[in-house]
Amino acid sequence: IYNPASMIPELFRIFSLPVSGYQFFYILGIIMGAAMIHLLSRREKLDTVEVAAFILLGIFCGWLGSRLLGATFGQIARLGEQPISFQAFREDFQTGGSFFGAVFASLLFAFFYSRAFFRESYRRLWDITVIGIALGHAVGRVGCFAAGCCYGLPTALPWGVSFTYLGRNPHPMAGIALHPVQLYEAASCLLLSLALLLLWKRRRFPGQIFSLYLAGYGLVRFLLEFLRHHDPSETLWPGGLSWFQAFSLLLALTGGMLNRHFAKTHSLQKGVDNPFQVKYISQKSNRREEK
I want to staple 114 with a disulfide (CB 3.0 to 4.6 A). Which of 12, 122, 172, 189 is the partner? Predict the structure, then answer.
């Protein structure tokens, strides 16, 4: 969970406005991810205007999803102290957010929008979108490290790091060496993006890269959560798995099932991505066999 309005220290100023490390890497991640999607869309020979609209709307949905999930967890964290209220939810929405919410909302948007406007090529669009998401996510996580949020558990390893501030307040783990779990995730997402890019050039069917991203990131996030600090409100039961791990497992399982589904239907598609056309081709083939 982050609060970008109060992240310090600042890296530089634009006129009189301070720019924190978090804000810089967050925006840089968006730019790099969008640039990657746009570049690959040209290689896929997709409509660049439609892709540009897709990227801009996807960024907005990612921002909205991050705020909604952050505000929701803020409400959950205070369940034992105060009842749920719209005023508190609005305050959390205005000041907090979640990277997982951004990724999840972006994927949902990509699924529905592309089905409506890229009916003949939506799986190919999904493939290049997740490569950009993984790259942008990697850069954005460096911002979390700069801010001291999303921190890890204490460690005696030589690369353990300590933070002084979290937002404008003293860091709750100040002076204690912690796992730089933000950098672990940044490196994992960068490697995932590069691996998907290489596989994209050799993919066996449209949608393969998308499904591998879901499975790969879900597994990475599930494992890294064991090294991350969690408040009691973020766990399914005391000392148990976190909500993020539950989401991660769901993401990984979805990726595995989609990969199997895409591979199974690829032989029927005959170069068409639309599943309704696949159904039509399959029915037509069955009629021929009956005759």
Answer: 122
Largest CA distance in the chain: 78
| Residue entry with tokens 């890497």 | 25
Burial 164-203 (b: 16+ CB within 10 A, else e): eebbeeebebeeebbbbbbbbbbebbbebbebbbebbeeb
Q: How many CA atoms lie within 13 A of 289 on its CB side?
A: 6
Q: Which two three-digit tokens encode residue 195?
A: 């691996």
pTM comes to: 0.81
Strand partners, 97: 2
Secondary structure class of 188 (helix, strand, coil):
helix
CA distance 154 to 228: 9
Residues 44-64 as b/e (b if ≥16 CB within 10 A, e otherwise) read: eebeeeebeebbeebbebbbb
Cβ atoms 118, 210 nearer than 8 A = no
The pLDDT of residue 240: 84
| End-to-end Cα separation, the chain, in angstroms | 61
pLDDT, block means (10 residues), the chain with 291 residues: 50 76 87 94 89 90 82 65 65 66 83 84 91 94 86 93 81 90 96 96 91 95 93 79 89 93 74 48 48 47
Residue 165 bridge partners (DSSP): 170
